[in-house]
Amino acid sequence: MHAAGLAAPAGTPRLPSKRRVPVSQPGMADPHQFFDDTSSAPTRGYGGQPSPGGLGYPSPSSSHEAPFLADPMSNMAMAYGSSLAAHGKELVDKNIDRFIPVTKLKYYFAVDTVYVGKKLGLLVFPYLHQDWEVQYQQDTPVAPRFDINAPDLYIPAMAFITYILVAGLALGTQDRFSPDLLGLQASSALAWLTLEVVAILLSLYLVTVNTDLTTIDLVAFLGYKYVGMIGGVLVGLLFGKIGYYLVLGWCCVSIFVFMIRTLRLKILAQAAAEGVPVRGARNQLRMYLTMAVAAAQPLLMYWLTFHLVR
Amino acid sequence: MAFTLYSLLQAALLCVNAIAVLHEERFLKNIGWGTDQGIGGFGEEPGIKSQLMNLVRSVRTVMRVPLIIVNSITIVLLLLFG
């Protein structure tokens, strides 16, 4: 079921178009369903309960409520209240999709343990991985659960939160901790992330790159550096500055290689697919952009962690 | 390391203000960044300079009114709360 089994050997030339592999996964009933739907079993249990008052109270107390709930006025009031609540919930559900693309976000969280383990391994050791293209299934990219190259938001989100906690831990061991410092670290890291995303989107617009790199994809890729940062700070806490510099240096180089190999496929789509060295002003500009984005990652990794390890 | 989201917002507001202040006739035309000087052929892919000029013109057109509102709010808040 792993994507690497379907990859062509490294020497063969590849078509510039996206590879549409008609993958028929045995476990997937519906290609658009990312999670196993277990909601039917419990809801049947809850919905099946008769509602002499709709409250589901255990039977001993029902004798108290029988005269109360037999009153038609309160029955009607309860029915009206529940219908109002349902209507409100419907309204919220309908409108929230306008501001936060919930269905699109679900794709990025469709991960499982195997994927997370493999992706973390790829982040610290990307040198042996051969095939970096994302598989497609009927024109939509395959969920991260089935393809290790797909970006996800689970690892960046968890890594960000862990980074905040580890920063608090590091500050605490140096007696510099106070609760508002934690909030300051969080908003500082978030501000740097926002700045990076805006700068990269601006430069992508200026260089007129026709790419399918969405904003959420970009946030996911830029969030992967927190994994290396956490590793560096933890080792720095245990083994001092030498350990911190060693691990951070290793993670910096890995993230650099990872970003270059991933962004090359997204930004330099045609040139990379054919395997020719990049020539021409346009391609050169795109190459510079990829290198700049990848080079900014180690710099930020160092900038956001050096004050935590003394 | 006090780089907070709030200072990012302030910096963004100042940058957009700076773009909005560039006068079309007195300044942009003199350095060759006027809006009528940049239109290339349709077959060509626009270079960076024409993209930048487009961006400056769009920002000035779109953000004129919202900038008035946001600037007024910011001035009032800064006067009140420092």
Describe the structure in your own words.
The complex is a heterodimer of chains A (about 300) and B (about 80). Chain A is mainly α and about 300 residues long. Chain A has helices at about 40-45, 60-70, 70-100, 100-110, 115-125, 155-175, 180-205, 215-225, 225-265, 270-275, 280-305, and strands at about 135, 140. In chain A, strand 1 (about 135) and strand 2 (about 140) form a beta hairpin. In chain A, about 25% of the residues are buried. Chain A has a two-stranded antiparallel ribbon with strand order 1-2. Chain A contains eleven helices and two strands, in the order H-H-H-H-H-E-E-H-H-H-H-H-H. The two termini of chain A are about 45 Å apart. By secondary structure, chain B is mainly alpha-helical. Chain B has a domain at about 50-80. Chain B is built from four helices and no strands. Chain B has helices at about 5-20, 25-30, 50-60, 65-80. The chains are: A mainly alpha (about 300), B mainly alpha (about 80). Chains A and B meet through helix 7 of A and helix 1 and helix 3 of B.
- The Cα radius of gyration of chain B reads 16 Å
Largest sheet of chain B: none
Order of helices and strands of chain A: HHHHHEEHHHHHH
What is the oligomer described by this structure?
A: heterodimer
User: Termini of chain A, distance in Å?
Assistant: 46 Å
Shape of chain B: elongated
Structural class of chain A: mainly alpha
**Helical segment tally of chain B?**
4
End-to-end Cα distance of chain B? 21 Å
What portion of residues of chain A belong to β-strands? under 5%
* Beta fraction of chain B: under 5%
**What's the number of helices of chain A?**
11
Gyration radius of chain A, to the nearest Å? 26 Å
Give the strand tally of chain B: 0
